[in-house]
Model the fold of this input.
Amino acid sequence: MKIVSIFIVFAGLIVTGCATTNTSSVAITSAKPSLTFSQEETWNLMVGKWYGSQPTKDGGKRQEIVERFPQGTYKITFRIYDKDGKIKEQTEAGQWGVSGPVYFAIFRGWVEDNHLFPSNPADPFNYDAYRIIKLDNEMLEYESYSSGNKYVIKKVSNDFQFPG
Done:
């Protein structure tokens, strides 16, 4: 009887020990599944040249022209008007992508005279994630997870430049 009791306790420890190697009991796929048509369509819709112009909370205006390329890189030029009308312009470059309803951008550096001045890849400030609210052939509306800012940009022709 003593041997049976020891065996039961030992078997229980083995089963319990095996069960604790899982961090969750929720079943998952063993590998990343192939892209759905919707995910591929989202990627293709994001590619191209886009323009946005919105007021800033301090009384100015921010304009942007972003070009997203099919290989996952981007170039964006910001034109920021302060409330007194002074203009600051800056061009940035990086990588972009989408996963489900999330659009993300990784800032890699500033562009001046076609030269890239790299950013610090260890700086978490250079990584952004956005919730895609609406996306079609004409418009993209998205919201920053970190700031809560909502942006609306529209698709433009490849030769589009800032107005005025």
